[in-house]
Amino acid sequence: MSxxxxxxxxxxxxxxxxxxxxxxxxCAVVARYVETLPGVALSxxxxxxxxxxxxxxIQQDIREHRLNRVVxxxxxxxxxxxxxxxxxxxxxxxxxxxxMVNIREHDSWVHTDRGEATEKAKALARAAIQRVAxxxxxxxxxxxxxxxxxxxxxxxxxxxxxxxxxxAGKKVYLVExxxxxxxxxxxxxxxxxxxxxxxxxxxxxxSEVGSHPNITLxxxxxxxxxxxxxxxxxxxxxxxxxxxxEDLCTGCQDCISHCVFxxxxxxxxFNEGLGKRKPIFIPFPQATPQAVLIDPEVCLNFKRNKNPxxxxxxxxxxxxxxxxxxxxxxxxxxTQKDTLQEVKVGSxxxxxxxxxxxxxxxxxxxxxxxxxxxxxxxxxxxxxxSGPTGGEVILREGKNADGSPKTPKSIGxxxxxxxxxxxxxxxxxxxxxxxxxxxAHLLREHTGAEMYNFYIDMRTPGKGYEEFYNKLLExxxxxxxxxxxxxxxxxxxxxxxxxxxxxxxxxxAGVVRRIPVDMVVLATGLEPQADAGEVRRLFNMSCGxxxxxxxxxxxxxxxxxxxxxxxxxxxxxxxxxIPDTVAQAGAAAAEALVLIDKGYIEQEPNTAHILEDECxxxxxxxxxxxxxxxLFDEGRKKxxxxxxxCKGCGTCVGSCPSASIVQNLFDDQExxxxxxxxLAYD
Amino acid sequence: xxxxxxxxIVAFFCNWCTYTAADLAGVSRLKYASNVRVIRLMCSGxxxxxxxxxxxxxxxxxxxxxxxxxxxxxxxxxxYKMLRRFELLKRLLADMGIEERRVRLEWISAxxxxxxxxxxxxxxxxxxKLGPLGMPQKFETWDKEIEHLAVEVxxxxxxxxxxxxxxxxxxxxxxVHA
Lengths: 682, 178
Known about the structure:
- The complex is a heterodimer.
- By secondary structure, chain A is α/β, with parallel strands linked by helices.
- Chain A contains 16 helices and 36 strands.
- Helices cover about 25% and strands about 25% of the residues of chain A.
- In chain B, strands 2-1-3-4 form a four-stranded parallel β-sheet, with helices on both faces.
């Protein structure tokens, strides 16, 4: 490349970032200080380095002042390193002759003394000047992208992402933990604010997924292992035994009606336990795939003990009328075992959704104690025509005089259960106000009951949402502003006898009120899935302090994660409603498409290599590499690194006893000079 | 040296968790002591014990290493490997008479901007109490002592003439080489 002992000509730029940096760091002082450092040919301060004129300034200076190194002191390198490398390259220099100093996130924004902050900026700048002198010209590696995509989670987010990609002609593996796709949305009756029926808009999409030639749908399956990196992931999926061959089952459900259990007996998860199912069942009528499954925990043909591999022992106690009913389809297979399948994909979209807050954690509201206290999800099933009661709202407890089930005459809906509370979850779940109003509307429609909504604040920031609120007001729903203190059955008047009393401070009227109702609905908030921690580790993502998966940047990279090639969509990233979820799923699919259609990804050249002459052949580096990138040449007794496998962590470099491993961009010389630089202030 | 002494702390932060957490602290406008100078590495596994020793030798009063929480390493387990080295390093530092509290390893995830603030403030306070480490000054003193010793030995040699036993030992060696 260039001459061996080229004269060092460093260009230094300190950015004001408007007032963001300049208010706390005296940029002119920093620039003047850096000017005095050895090797610095030019030092400037400028208002916005990342702007077009700022970048052009760098390019122009490289040409005019024959700069051969560039240092920019501005924001975090995680934000703009790429931008400035581009500018340096456009100026005709290798982009890796550049180093960036973070004097915004790590300095001006976190300090309060202008003198101290300026001193810190000087020290950091000096370190960068010393470091950049050792930089070498490097080349960016290109890695091919496998065109297939894995979508994890088959709720509305996963369904939409998978459909978008499949319609673009890409091959998608959609993995869903439950026996059917559909997620929470499949349980809803209507969706706010348009009140269109959830099933009517979701189920066509579900069956499209089921029959799409580009989608491989694996329900009742879980991702168990993820290896590799962007473009080349190897994913292991556990397909749980359903004891029914999915390919042979036609969904006729004859087996269900012929089961030896004449009546459904076991709590039905899909109906939130409000309904019952048999040991052989289909989660709900429109389930996709249309295949039944057997619950070995309750099926009589299985014993209660387990094989050494964890699978249940098949017995022979049952008459197996289901097998008879299935006839020559032979879909039922009691000997089915969990299987592991491996697929190769280039990118992954994680849409693992949420769980609702466990209402039992707020004992003052009496869930689990008073039978007529319901969670909102239970009520969704109750008002649903395909729900356990066929859409009839009948109370769990209490009968009319003639013995028929009782319908409520007045209903209280409590907002923000588990949300916006230091004791439970701090965040607003974003959907509760709207779904509470939707349920108020639906419950009134179904029962004609008097509706009371207890809210802290009404939050209706969406298209048509405020209008929906107004509609509810006009309908005569009572809105009472105040956090409910408790739900109790302790009656003080004859009118309250046998009913539930909601005690609340009406903060608008300034009085404590007791409102007797027949039914209480708890608008439970949204929480990260119980196993979000494990899922996060599986895909090497980060979580916020609240447990939601962390996006790379809240505004500029909202569906990317810190792991290249892994994207997020839906509520696993934070609470959101269906329109936002679908928009995000589309965005995640688009990000995956960017990778696939480009065909390759440029990788940081921060890989390590071994200086053969220095290597003593001690092999201590070999077991340290998590990617088995370090190999040993037995003939020459030297280790060597397969740079295609190296991810650039530098762990081997840090541990080599003979200092014979060099990591590009982070070699010893560079770091030692940076250490010296940060300490050289007085 | 007219200014009041404040600790100098060098920090090695991994790119994925702790450096990002420090960025988050910035974005959240948390305020903390300005004594820490951060050096970004891709992984805490890259931290060579020599970096820590070099920093102390060049005038740092403390060193902070920040990595991802165990199990969260972007490179699978670089942080564990750092932890192993760190345990050894601590013993070495103790043998050198350097207080254990001057060198600290912390797991800080990308979401823990608040922890960056508390750790930095805490560490700055602790080191303020410990006072300056002053390795460069100590090196100067030690160099002076060695120089002084050398002068003394030379003076003694000059007074006594070359050491007879040494000369006797050298002779046969030279003979061998010849």
